[in-house]
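Researcher: Next sequence.
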Amino acid sequence: MGCCESTFLRRPDSLHKTNHHHHLYNNNTNTNRLTQTNNGPSSPSIAGKDSLAGGAAGFPDFSEFSLAELKAATNNFSSDFIVSECGEKAPNVVYKGRLQNDNNRRWIAIKKFTRLAWPDPKQFADEARGVGNLRHKRVANLIGYCCDGDERLLVAEYMPNDTLAKHLFHWENQTIEWAMRLRVALYIAEALDYCSSEGRPLYHDLNAYRVLFDENGDPRLSCFGLMKNSRDGKSYSTNLAYTPPEYLRNGRVTPESVIFSFGTVLLDLLSGKHIPPSHALDMIRGKNILLLMDSHLEGHFSSEEATVVFDLASQCLQYEPRERPNTKDLVTTLAPLQNKPDVSHLSSTFALPLNFLKFTFWMCFHGNIVCFCSFVLMKY
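Model: Next structure:
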Protein backbone atom coordinates (compact mmCIF):
# COMPACT_ATOMS: atom_id res chain seq x y z
CA MET A 1 0.00 0.00 0.00
CA GLY A 2 1.05 3.56 -0.57
CA CYS A 3 1.38 6.02 2.26
CA CYS A 4 -1.30 8.64 2.46
CA GLU A 5 -1.05 11.54 4.87
CA SER A 6 -4.06 13.71 5.63
CA THR A 7 -2.73 17.25 5.41
CA PHE A 8 -6.01 18.75 6.56
CA LEU A 9 -5.45 16.94 9.85
CA ARG A 10 -3.55 19.02 12.38
CA ARG A 11 -1.23 16.76 14.33
CA PRO A 12 -0.15 17.93 17.78
CA ASP A 13 2.53 15.31 18.35
CA SER A 14 6.02 15.47 16.91
CA LEU A 15 5.85 11.87 15.86
CA HIS A 16 2.75 11.28 13.78
CA LYS A 17 0.76 8.18 13.04
CA THR A 18 0.77 7.42 9.32
CA ASN A 19 -2.47 6.56 7.55
CA HIS A 20 -2.07 3.89 4.88
CA HIS A 21 -4.32 3.74 1.84
CA HIS A 22 -4.27 2.68 -1.77
CA HIS A 23 -4.04 5.64 -4.12
CA LEU A 24 -6.74 4.62 -6.40
CA TYR A 25 -7.09 6.95 -9.34
CA ASN A 26 -4.95 6.75 -12.43
CA ASN A 27 -5.96 9.57 -14.75
CA ASN A 28 -4.65 8.54 -18.14
CA THR A 29 -7.36 7.79 -20.68
CA ASN A 30 -11.12 7.84 -21.03
CA THR A 31 -13.34 4.89 -21.77
CA ASN A 32 -16.89 4.39 -22.96
CA ARG A 33 -17.96 2.79 -19.68
CA LEU A 34 -16.42 5.35 -17.33
CA THR A 35 -15.85 8.96 -18.24
CA GLN A 36 -12.94 10.70 -16.54
CA THR A 37 -13.97 12.80 -13.56
CA ASN A 38 -12.00 16.02 -13.38
CA ASN A 39 -13.64 18.88 -11.59
CA GLY A 40 -10.44 20.63 -10.64
CA PRO A 41 -9.65 21.91 -7.17
CA SER A 42 -12.71 22.55 -5.07
CA SER A 43 -13.36 25.77 -3.26
CA PRO A 44 -16.20 26.87 -1.05
CA SER A 45 -19.17 28.29 -2.89
CA ILE A 46 -22.84 28.91 -2.47
CA ALA A 47 -24.89 26.00 -3.73
CA GLY A 48 -26.47 26.24 -7.12
CA LYS A 49 -27.30 23.57 -9.63
CA ASP A 50 -25.66 25.41 -12.52
CA SER A 51 -22.38 26.06 -10.73
CA LEU A 52 -21.93 22.75 -8.93
CA ALA A 53 -23.59 20.04 -10.98
CA GLY A 54 -21.17 19.45 -13.82
CA GLY A 55 -22.13 18.28 -17.25
CA ALA A 56 -22.46 14.63 -18.20
CA ALA A 57 -18.94 14.62 -19.63
CA GLY A 58 -17.49 15.45 -16.21
CA PHE A 59 -18.81 12.39 -14.37
CA PRO A 60 -18.74 8.62 -14.84
CA ASP A 61 -21.53 7.22 -17.00
CA PHE A 62 -24.27 5.12 -15.41
CA SER A 63 -24.23 1.48 -16.50
CA GLU A 64 -25.64 -1.95 -15.78
CA PHE A 65 -22.81 -4.27 -14.78
CA SER A 66 -22.72 -8.04 -15.02
CA LEU A 67 -22.09 -10.14 -11.94
CA ALA A 68 -19.04 -11.60 -13.67
CA GLU A 69 -17.55 -8.12 -14.09
CA LEU A 70 -17.99 -7.30 -10.42
CA LYS A 71 -16.66 -10.67 -9.29
CA ALA A 72 -13.56 -10.12 -11.39
CA ALA A 73 -13.21 -6.58 -10.02
CA THR A 74 -13.21 -7.82 -6.41
CA ASN A 75 -11.38 -11.13 -6.76
CA ASN A 76 -14.71 -12.93 -6.27
CA PHE A 77 -15.70 -10.58 -3.45
CA SER A 78 -12.61 -11.35 -1.44
CA SER A 79 -12.59 -10.22 2.18
CA ASP A 80 -9.35 -8.40 1.35
CA PHE A 81 -11.42 -5.95 -0.72
CA ILE A 82 -13.95 -5.09 2.01
CA VAL A 83 -13.98 -1.40 2.93
CA SER A 84 -17.06 -1.33 5.19
CA GLU A 85 -16.27 0.21 8.58
CA CYS A 86 -17.61 -2.94 10.28
CA GLY A 87 -16.04 -5.32 7.79
CA GLU A 88 -17.97 -8.49 7.07
CA LYS A 89 -20.25 -7.78 10.04
CA ALA A 90 -21.94 -4.95 8.14
CA PRO A 91 -25.50 -5.86 7.05
CA ASN A 92 -24.70 -4.83 3.48
CA VAL A 93 -20.99 -5.13 2.80
CA VAL A 94 -19.12 -2.57 0.68
CA TYR A 95 -16.13 -3.67 -1.41
CA LYS A 96 -13.61 -1.77 -3.42
CA GLY A 97 -12.98 -3.15 -6.87
CA ARG A 98 -11.16 -2.48 -10.10
CA LEU A 99 -12.84 -3.15 -13.42
CA GLN A 100 -10.81 -5.45 -15.61
CA ASN A 101 -12.08 -4.00 -18.90
CA ASP A 102 -11.54 -0.37 -17.94
CA ASN A 103 -8.47 1.17 -19.57
CA ASN A 104 -8.12 3.57 -16.64
CA ARG A 105 -8.12 0.66 -14.18
CA ARG A 106 -10.16 2.94 -11.98
CA TRP A 107 -11.31 1.76 -8.57
CA ILE A 108 -15.00 1.57 -7.72
CA ALA A 109 -17.09 0.94 -4.61
CA ILE A 110 -19.56 -1.96 -4.70
CA LYS A 111 -22.33 -2.37 -2.15
CA LYS A 112 -23.50 -5.97 -1.97
CA PHE A 113 -26.91 -6.41 -0.37
CA THR A 114 -27.86 -9.48 1.57
CA ARG A 115 -29.74 -12.13 -0.40
CA LEU A 116 -33.27 -11.05 -1.29
CA ALA A 117 -32.88 -7.66 0.40
CA TRP A 118 -34.62 -6.33 -2.70
CA PRO A 119 -36.97 -9.17 -3.77
CA ASP A 120 -38.26 -7.28 -6.80
CA PRO A 121 -35.45 -6.81 -9.34
CA LYS A 122 -37.42 -4.20 -11.27
CA GLN A 123 -37.92 -2.11 -8.15
CA PHE A 124 -34.21 -2.27 -7.41
CA ALA A 125 -33.22 -1.39 -10.98
CA ASP A 126 -35.69 1.50 -11.16
CA GLU A 127 -34.50 2.90 -7.85
CA ALA A 128 -30.85 2.57 -8.89
CA ARG A 129 -31.50 4.37 -12.18
CA GLY A 130 -33.27 7.16 -10.31
CA VAL A 131 -30.30 7.71 -8.01
CA GLY A 132 -27.95 7.22 -10.96
CA ASN A 133 -29.48 10.24 -12.68
CA LEU A 134 -27.95 12.47 -10.02
CA ARG A 135 -24.56 13.92 -10.85
CA HIS A 136 -22.86 16.37 -8.52
CA LYS A 137 -19.32 16.99 -7.34
CA ARG A 138 -20.43 17.00 -3.71
CA VAL A 139 -21.74 13.43 -4.07
CA ALA A 140 -19.93 10.11 -4.41
CA ASN A 141 -22.07 9.34 -7.42
CA LEU A 142 -23.79 6.07 -8.27
CA ILE A 143 -22.33 4.80 -11.54
CA GLY A 144 -24.11 1.48 -11.96
CA TYR A 145 -25.92 -1.52 -10.57
CA CYS A 146 -26.22 -5.27 -11.03
CA CYS A 147 -29.30 -7.50 -10.85
CA ASP A 148 -28.42 -11.14 -11.39
CA GLY A 149 -30.60 -13.85 -9.86
CA ASP A 150 -30.80 -13.05 -6.15
CA GLU A 151 -27.84 -10.69 -6.29
CA ARG A 152 -28.40 -6.93 -5.87
CA LEU A 153 -25.34 -4.71 -6.11
CA LEU A 154 -24.73 -0.98 -6.41
CA VAL A 155 -21.60 0.50 -7.98
CA ALA A 156 -20.35 3.97 -7.02
CA GLU A 157 -17.34 6.22 -7.35
CA TYR A 158 -14.66 5.06 -4.92
CA MET A 159 -13.50 7.53 -2.28
CA PRO A 160 -9.97 6.54 -1.19
CA ASN A 161 -9.54 8.68 1.91
CA ASP A 162 -11.92 7.13 4.44
CA THR A 163 -15.00 8.43 6.21
CA LEU A 164 -15.62 11.44 8.40
CA ALA A 165 -16.31 9.02 11.25
CA LYS A 166 -12.86 7.48 10.95
CA HIS A 167 -11.10 10.84 10.91
CA LEU A 168 -13.18 12.23 13.80
CA PHE A 169 -13.57 9.25 16.07
CA HIS A 170 -10.81 6.76 15.33
CA TRP A 171 -7.55 8.73 15.27
CA GLU A 172 -5.67 9.14 18.53
CA ASN A 173 -3.11 11.84 17.78
CA GLN A 174 -4.61 13.96 15.03
CA THR A 175 -7.76 15.84 14.30
CA ILE A 176 -9.49 17.62 11.45
CA GLU A 177 -8.75 21.32 11.52
CA TRP A 178 -11.60 23.76 12.07
CA ALA A 179 -11.66 25.13 8.52
CA MET A 180 -12.09 21.63 7.12
CA ARG A 181 -14.92 20.91 9.53
CA LEU A 182 -16.69 23.99 8.23
CA ARG A 183 -16.07 22.77 4.69
CA VAL A 184 -17.56 19.37 5.50
CA ALA A 185 -20.68 21.03 6.88
CA LEU A 186 -21.15 23.24 3.81
CA TYR A 187 -20.37 20.59 1.20
CA ILE A 188 -22.79 18.09 2.68
CA ALA A 189 -25.44 20.82 2.93
CA GLU A 190 -24.83 21.60 -0.75
CA ALA A 191 -25.16 17.93 -1.64
CA LEU A 192 -28.46 17.65 0.23
CA ASP A 193 -29.73 20.84 -1.37
CA TYR A 194 -28.87 19.55 -4.84
CA CYS A 195 -30.58 16.21 -4.20
CA SER A 196 -33.64 18.02 -2.89
CA SER A 197 -33.78 20.25 -5.96
CA GLU A 198 -33.63 17.14 -8.15
CA GLY A 199 -36.60 15.52 -6.43
CA ARG A 200 -34.54 13.32 -4.09
CA PRO A 201 -34.99 15.01 -0.70
CA LEU A 202 -34.93 11.79 1.34
CA TYR A 203 -31.62 10.53 2.67
CA HIS A 204 -31.60 7.48 4.91
CA ASP A 205 -29.55 7.51 8.10
CA LEU A 206 -27.30 10.48 7.41
CA ASN A 207 -24.30 10.22 9.73
CA ALA A 208 -20.53 10.62 9.82
CA TYR A 209 -20.06 7.23 8.13
CA ARG A 210 -21.93 8.54 5.07
CA VAL A 211 -19.44 11.38 4.55
CA LEU A 212 -16.47 10.27 2.46
CA PHE A 213 -13.24 11.98 1.39
CA ASP A 214 -12.27 11.86 -2.26
CA GLU A 215 -8.83 11.70 -3.86
CA ASN A 216 -8.41 15.46 -3.40
CA GLY A 217 -9.32 15.30 0.27
CA ASP A 218 -12.69 16.94 -0.24
CA PRO A 219 -15.81 15.65 1.55
CA ARG A 220 -18.59 14.01 -0.43
CA LEU A 221 -21.95 12.52 0.47
CA SER A 222 -22.33 8.79 -0.19
CA CYS A 223 -24.99 8.03 -2.80
CA PHE A 224 -26.01 4.83 -1.01
CA GLY A 225 -28.19 6.68 1.48
CA LEU A 226 -30.32 8.00 -1.39
CA MET A 227 -31.70 4.55 -2.13
CA LYS A 228 -35.12 3.82 -0.72
CA ASN A 229 -35.41 1.36 2.12
CA SER A 230 -35.02 -2.28 1.17
CA ARG A 231 -37.18 -4.99 2.75
CA ASP A 232 -34.62 -6.12 5.31
CA GLY A 233 -32.92 -2.77 5.82
CA LYS A 234 -33.56 0.04 8.24
CA SER A 235 -33.71 3.72 7.43
CA TYR A 236 -32.08 4.52 10.74
CA SER A 237 -29.70 2.69 12.98
CA THR A 238 -30.96 0.77 15.97
CA ASN A 239 -29.43 3.42 18.24
CA LEU A 240 -32.61 5.32 19.09
CA ALA A 241 -30.71 8.19 20.70
CA TYR A 242 -29.82 9.52 17.24
CA THR A 243 -33.13 8.82 15.51
CA PRO A 244 -35.49 11.70 14.56
CA PRO A 245 -38.42 11.70 16.99
CA GLU A 246 -41.03 11.60 14.23
CA TYR A 247 -39.46 8.44 12.82
CA LEU A 248 -39.96 6.79 16.19
CA ARG A 249 -43.62 7.80 16.05
CA ASN A 250 -44.54 6.71 12.52
CA GLY A 251 -41.54 4.94 10.99
CA ARG A 252 -41.46 7.29 8.02
CA VAL A 253 -38.52 9.25 6.66
CA THR A 254 -39.30 12.84 5.69
CA PRO A 255 -37.14 15.71 4.40
CA GLU A 256 -37.30 17.15 7.90
CA SER A 257 -35.89 13.87 9.26
CA VAL A 258 -32.85 14.41 7.05
CA ILE A 259 -32.36 17.87 8.54
CA PHE A 260 -32.45 16.36 12.04
CA SER A 261 -29.74 13.89 11.02
CA PHE A 262 -27.69 16.72 9.53
CA GLY A 263 -27.87 18.35 12.95
CA THR A 264 -26.28 15.26 14.50
CA VAL A 265 -23.44 15.50 11.96
CA LEU A 266 -22.90 19.13 12.98
CA LEU A 267 -22.60 17.96 16.58
CA ASP A 268 -20.04 15.37 15.49
CA LEU A 269 -18.00 18.07 13.75
CA LEU A 270 -18.13 20.36 16.78
CA SER A 271 -17.43 17.82 19.48
CA GLY A 272 -15.31 15.22 17.72
CA LYS A 273 -17.54 12.65 19.40
CA HIS A 274 -20.77 10.88 18.58
CA ILE A 275 -22.94 12.11 21.43
CA PRO A 276 -26.72 11.90 21.78
CA PRO A 277 -28.46 15.06 20.51
CA SER A 278 -30.47 15.46 23.72
CA HIS A 279 -27.28 15.61 25.79
CA ALA A 280 -25.70 18.10 23.38
CA LEU A 281 -28.80 20.30 23.35
CA ASP A 282 -28.72 20.47 27.13
CA MET A 283 -25.17 21.83 26.86
CA ILE A 284 -26.22 24.32 24.19
CA ARG A 285 -29.17 25.57 26.22
CA GLY A 286 -26.86 25.92 29.19
CA LYS A 287 -24.44 27.97 27.08
CA ASN A 288 -21.68 25.48 27.85
CA ILE A 289 -20.42 25.58 24.29
CA LEU A 290 -16.79 25.14 25.25
CA LEU A 291 -17.65 21.92 27.09
CA LEU A 292 -19.00 20.51 23.86
CA MET A 293 -16.12 21.59 21.62
CA ASP A 294 -13.55 19.00 20.57
CA SER A 295 -10.62 19.32 22.96
CA HIS A 296 -8.26 18.35 20.14
CA LEU A 297 -8.89 21.70 18.51
CA GLU A 298 -7.07 23.27 21.47
CA GLY A 299 -8.62 26.68 20.89
CA HIS A 300 -7.76 26.70 17.19
CA PHE A 301 -11.23 27.72 16.12
CA SER A 302 -13.40 30.82 15.99
CA SER A 303 -15.86 30.99 18.88
CA GLU A 304 -18.11 33.20 16.75
CA GLU A 305 -18.20 30.61 13.96
CA ALA A 306 -18.70 27.81 16.45
CA THR A 307 -21.67 29.66 17.91
CA VAL A 308 -23.24 29.93 14.44
CA VAL A 309 -22.81 26.20 13.89
CA PHE A 310 -24.17 25.44 17.37
CA ASP A 311 -27.22 27.57 16.71
CA LEU A 312 -27.79 25.85 13.37
CA ALA A 313 -27.44 22.42 14.98
CA SER A 314 -29.96 23.43 17.62
CA GLN A 315 -32.44 24.48 14.90
CA CYS A 316 -31.92 21.21 13.02
CA LEU A 317 -32.59 19.18 16.16
CA GLN A 318 -35.91 20.79 17.04
CA TYR A 319 -38.48 18.25 18.17
CA GLU A 320 -41.15 19.58 15.80
CA PRO A 321 -40.14 18.94 12.17
CA ARG A 322 -41.78 22.16 10.91
CA GLU A 323 -39.45 24.22 13.11
CA ARG A 324 -36.30 22.92 11.39
CA PRO A 325 -34.56 24.80 8.57
CA ASN A 326 -34.56 23.55 4.97
CA THR A 327 -31.52 22.66 2.88
CA LYS A 328 -31.23 26.14 1.37
CA ASP A 329 -31.20 27.61 4.87
CA LEU A 330 -28.32 25.29 5.73
CA VAL A 331 -26.25 26.48 2.79
CA THR A 332 -27.08 30.15 3.39
CA THR A 333 -25.93 29.88 7.00
CA LEU A 334 -22.76 27.88 6.37
CA ALA A 335 -21.45 29.53 3.19
CA PRO A 336 -20.32 32.80 4.86
CA LEU A 337 -18.17 30.81 7.30
CA GLN A 338 -15.91 29.57 4.52
CA ASN A 339 -13.17 32.15 4.96
CA LYS A 340 -10.26 29.83 4.31
CA PRO A 341 -10.59 28.63 0.69
CA ASP A 342 -7.02 27.30 0.70
CA VAL A 343 -7.65 24.79 3.49
CA SER A 344 -5.31 21.86 2.92
CA HIS A 345 -6.51 18.90 0.91
CA LEU A 346 -5.51 15.31 1.46
CA SER A 347 -2.16 14.59 -0.11
CA SER A 348 -0.12 11.46 -0.43
CA THR A 349 3.47 10.87 0.49
CA PHE A 350 6.14 8.47 -0.49
CA ALA A 351 6.50 5.76 2.12
CA LEU A 352 10.18 5.64 3.01
CA PRO A 353 11.67 2.15 3.43
CA LEU A 354 12.25 1.09 7.02
CA ASN A 355 15.94 0.43 6.39
CA PHE A 356 16.35 3.98 5.08
CA LEU A 357 14.72 5.40 8.21
CA LYS A 358 16.98 3.26 10.44
CA PHE A 359 20.01 4.52 8.51
CA THR A 360 18.83 8.12 8.86
CA PHE A 361 18.46 7.86 12.63
CA TRP A 362 21.86 6.13 12.87
CA MET A 363 23.44 9.00 10.97
CA CYS A 364 21.72 11.55 13.21
CA PHE A 365 22.95 9.98 16.42
CA HIS A 366 26.36 8.68 15.38
CA GLY A 367 27.54 10.91 12.60
CA ASN A 368 27.01 14.33 14.19
CA ILE A 369 25.00 15.24 11.13
CA VAL A 370 21.88 17.33 11.27
CA CYS A 371 19.48 15.45 9.08
CA PHE A 372 16.35 16.96 7.62
CA CYS A 373 13.90 14.59 6.00
CA SER A 374 11.07 15.93 3.88
CA PHE A 375 8.25 13.91 2.48
CA VAL A 376 7.58 14.72 -1.14
CA LEU A 377 3.91 15.28 -1.77
CA MET A 378 2.43 13.80 -4.86
CA LYS A 379 -1.12 13.53 -6.16
CA TYR A 380 -2.49 10.53 -7.97
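Model: The longest strand covers residues 142-148. Residues 1-57, 346-380 have pLDDT under 50 and may be disordered.
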